[in-house]
Structure formats: C-alpha cells, structure tokens
Amino acid sequence: MAYSQIRLKILPSVRCLFDKLVQVRVEGLTPHKQVQLRSRLVDDRGRVFKASALYKANETGQVDVCRAPSLGGSYTGVEPMGLFWAMAPEIPHSKLLKKNVLSPTLVEIEAMSAETGELLASETNERGYMTEGMKRIPVQEGRIRGVLFIPPGEGPFPGIVDLYIFGGRLTEPRASLLANKGFVVLALAYMGYEDLPKNPKKLDLEYFDEAVTYLRRQPEVKGPGIGIISISHSGGLALSMSSFLSGISATVCINGCNANTAIPLHYKDLIIPPLTPVLKNITFTDSGLLYVRNGLPDPSLEKNRASQFPIERASCHFLFAVSEDDHNWNSVLFANQAAATLRSHGKESFQVVTYPKAGHFLEVPYMPH
Predict the structure, then answer these.
(1) Which of 232, 240, 307, 331 is labelled catalytic?
(2) Into how many domains does the chain fold?
C-alpha cells in the first residue's frame, strides 16, 4: 500500500463551528481493506477524550463515514459524527470542560492500518464556538455576573438567558453556539464564579430578575420578552423565573425538576423550601458510585406541595426536553407533572420531547457524552 496516496479529508472544511456536521473521508486505500479511524481531543483541564471505529474500504478504496457502517469500536453502524460524540474520557466520569470559547476545540482524526497499526493519514478538525464578528462581553452589572454574546449583523435579535448547572461556575459553549444562530445570549452565573458565593444558603430570585431586566434593556435585544434555556438544577430556576417574573416569552427546561431542590428559593417575602431527599433511596452502584436517581420524593404528594413551582402562573411557552435514561433524577416524571399542571389550568402552550436512550446531560450536538 502506497501510504503517500492515502488522504484523510474533513469536508467541507477543517474549520467549522462545534455544532456543525462534517464529512470524514479517507481516500487512496486498498479496496476492501479494513482501516481503523481514531479521534482524540484534549479539553481545557488537560483531560483526554478518545474514540475509535473499524471501517472497510469500498471498491474504489474509499471510506466515507457519512455512508459506511462502523464494524466495531466505540460505536457500530452508520454514524456520520460517531467519531465526535462517542469520544470517552480516559479518566472515567470526566465531563468535557471548555472554559475559553475564544479558541476552538481541536479534534485529531487518524486513519490506521487495521493489520499493522501503522499511521496512514491524519487531519485536525478545528471546532470553534464564535462566528466572525461576534462579540463576547464579560458582564459585571450591579450584582450580575456572566458573559454576553452578541451576534454580528444589524439586529435587534431575540434575547436568551442561558442558565447552566448547579455549582457549574460559568459555561459558555451553549451560549456562544446559540448566539451564532441569531440570538443575544447572556450566559448567567449564579454561584462559584468571580465574587459570587461558592455555596449559597439560598437562591435569590431577585438576582435573576435583575438579569432579565439587564438583558431586556440591551439595545441589541428585540422585545418585548426574552427566552430562558436551562438544564438540571437550573431547570427549576427557569420554571420559578417563568412563574414569578415578567418579560419571559419562552422557557426551555432540559431534565429539570418541577419543584425546588437543594436550597431554599427566596423571592421578596416568599420562600419555597427544597424537597427533602429520601435518603434510604440513595444507594451505591457496584462500581462505588452514588446512585441518586430515586433520591427525590414525588413533588405531587400533598406534603411536598410547598416545594412545587406555581407554573400555572406563567404566561410563556414551555419546551420540556427529557432523557428517559437520566440517572440523576426522574426527569420524565417531573416533566409530565409540569405538563399536567399546565393542562389542568387550561394552558396548552407547552411541548414535552423525550429522548429514549439519552442521559442527564443533553448537551449541544456532537459533544462527547
């Protein structure tokens, strides 16, 4: 096999946005010979993520990952972006960390001989977060801490508050990628970032009200209302904001809970207590991990009503995105209860979308699980 003839191509370009599909193609192989494709990235913490898949060249000596099935490895079958989403961390249970969205994530792709293990060809895909001309503005406005992303162009644009995970400091990839689609997005921190408390004793809804007001006042933001996107613990926050605050038109709640969890939520004179975990339902897995899926009680029980968010007060549209294989908590139950509450109050402006085999972190496209 003349290795100099072998080319690994990433199409349409080696540079793209992180959430864009690319075509990985290997040309110049011996017809019908097997080749192993490998992918690798190093995240901002220095953690290594890898995937591999076995392919067989066609009669013209080509492997097109968009059309050919993987015969084995990290995934099987036709998966155009399998080399990206199937990457797994070398240190188990690591979540990919991307702190700095000003630089791309580099994914190295290699084609190896399945027989000898020799490197045949390689290429690097630069997967960026910000389109040219986008503004990234750190926000320190009164108590508010976060980063504002403004897309290029005339505007004004719809505004979105992006709320991420409990204890998650500030996470920018989703916010920056959303801004590429024509939104002004405020990635809002609510703990453990800059001078915000690491372990707050309560959630102050008035802080989030200030953030909504700040975003709505930006000249690039088209009114009258803004949207919220949230995941996990911040899903509950988004539901409480929709219930009590004005100026919210749409709320996306990804694997959230319809009741308050973890710490009390305060708004003016109102306190919503968190659900009390059922400790006997928290167990250990065989590998020594804490299994918390059944740790929260049923929010619809009478004794837990005080913790429920009064979403029947909301006037926005809701999208509940839920993973049926969520092992963090029972997202499907919580979303269905929220939908039932809205329905019982004559509200139909909601949608529940379920993903049968997905886990708790429903991330941006092609993010390693």
Answers:
(1) 232
(2) 2
By the 8 A CB rule, do 68 and 58 touch? yes
Instruction: Give 40-56 pLDDT, tens digit per residue.
Output: 999 999 999 999 999 99
Is residue 360 among the annotated active site residues? yes
Of 205, 204, 227, 197, the closest CA to residue 215 belongs to: 227
Please indicate, yes or no, if residue 336 is contained in any of the structural domains.
yes
Last residue of a domain, one of 97, 128, 159: 128
Please confirm, yes or no, whether 326 is among the known catalytic residues: yes
In this structure, is residue 328 part of a structural domain? yes
Among 154-163, 166-175, 332-341, whose mean pLDDT is lowest?
166-175
- Among candidate residues 95, 128, 161, the one where a domain is terminated: 128
**Is there a single domain that holds both residue 181 and residue 270?**
yes
The per-residue pLDDT for range 320-367, each reduced to its tens digit, is 999 999 999 999 999 999 999 999 999 999 999 999 999 999 999 999
Residue 3: pLDDT band with limits 50, 70, 90: low
| Residue length of the chain | 369
Annotated catalytic residue within 19, 113, 230, 360: 360
23-27 and 7-11: which strand pairing? antiparallel
Cβ atoms of 359 and 367 closer than 8 Å: no
Q: Which residues pair with 161 in a beta bridge?
A: 186, 228
- List 74, 233, 326, 331, catalytic entry: 326
- Both 82 and 194 in one domain: the answer is no
- Specify if 361 maps to a domain: no
Domain that holds residue 236: 135-355
Give the containing element (helix H, strand E) for 144: strand 144-150
CA dist., res. 338 & res. 322, Å (int):
12
Asked whether the beta carbons of 111 and 94 are under 8 A apart, the reply is no
